[in-house]
Amino acid sequence: MDAPVIAVVDYHKGNLSSVARGLARAGAEALVTDDPDRIRAADGIVLPGVGSFYDAITFMRDHGQDAAVIDAVAGGEGTPFLGICLGLQLLFERGDEGVPASGETEDASLSSDGDVFLAPTAADAVSKGAHLAPGTVFSASERRWVSGLGVLAGSCTILPARRLKVPHVGWDQVHLTERGRICPLLEGFAEGSNVYFTHSFALDDDVEPQDVAAVTHYGRNFGSVVWHGNLYGCQFHPEKSSNHGHEILRNFVSIASRARGAHA
């Protein structure tokens, strides 16, 4: 069988060659592309981690990449997806990294006090960015947010810097949850393995527990691997994580290959 085509989404924020090389070593035909049609047509999609939440999601929105990813991964049998670092975060409803100050950009339908103006029954959901188009700036919980792809529920916020240096850079442990022990992406991945992180923001505690396959502690606990159906994400960089990272990329290529065979 031919190697699965894995689209590496290029939102013009950095060099993606290390991700592409890692996927190629894992057996994929890696295609770095900013073309929504090629993203939709791929056997698997990797959204890498470069730049800020706001810059990345607004570029994706303005160039049709957000819709391409959402269309491709929709449903339980959608295209396998792997988000890396920021790419994991963009799967979720909202983030506050890099959001312009009030007055520098147009907000979503605001009330006079700066909050999103909504019917009470919808307020809780939309205050987290649910049902808002990707890249929409809004205010809630005394913060300014930008909505992500919104495929998974939850927020991304900055790590605490009270005792530890932020950004969190270097090797750190990943601890599997019960869900993680059966996660196809983590097949053969040992509990407590060290992988390479470089980030200041991470998933907050409002994510769905069943979506968290592994956790890491740095100032607070955060989900370092997520899994929901055909959606996978790593807060760390597998392409920089030596043998453990190669194992994860190889597992993802196998997932994409099996999915292509099932849909043939």
From TrEMBL:
Pathway per the UniProt entry: Amino-acid biosynthesis; L-histidine biosynthesis; L-histidine from 5-phospho-alpha-D-ribose 1-diphosphate: step 5/9
GO MF entry, a single one: imidazoleglycerol-phosphate synthase activity
Keywords annotated in UniProt: Amino-acid biosynthesis, Cytoplasm, Glutamine amidotransferase, Histidine biosynthesis, Hydrolase, Lyase
Source superkingdom: Bacteria
Keyword Amino-acid biosynthesis: yes
GO biological process terms, semicolon-separated: L-histidine biosynthetic process
EC number(s) given by UniProt: 4.3.2.10, 3.5.1.2
Domain Glutamine amidotransferase, chain residue ranges per copy: 8-253
UniProt-annotated catalytic positions: C85, H237, E239
Location, primary (coarse class): cytoplasm
GO cellular component: cytoplasm
InterPro entries referenced in this protein's UniProt entry, alphabetically: Class_I_gatase-like, GATASE, Imidazole-glycPsynth_HisH
Catalytically driven reaction(s): L-glutamine + H2O = L-glutamate + NH4(+); 5-[(5-phospho-1-deoxy-D-ribulos-1-ylimino)methylamino]-1-(5-phospho-beta-D-ribosyl)imidazole-4-carboxamide + L-glutamine = D-erythro-1-(imidazol-4-yl)glycerol 3-phosphate + 5-amino-1-(5-phospho-beta-D-ribosyl)imidazole-4-carboxamide + L-glutamate + H(+)
PANTHER family in UniProt: IMIDAZOLE GLYCEROL PHOSPHATE SYNTHASE SUBUNIT HISH
Main function: IGPS catalyzes the conversion of PRFAR and glutamine to IGP, AICAR and glutamate. The HisH subunit catalyzes the hydrolysis of glutamine to glutamate and ammonia as part of the synthesis of IGP and AICAR. The resulting ammonia molecule is channeled to the active site of HisF.
The protein, known as: Imidazole glycerol phosphate synthase subunit HisH
Organism: Enorma phocaeensis
Classification lineage: Bacteria, Bacillati, Actinomycetota, Coriobacteriia, Coriobacteriales
Gene: hisH
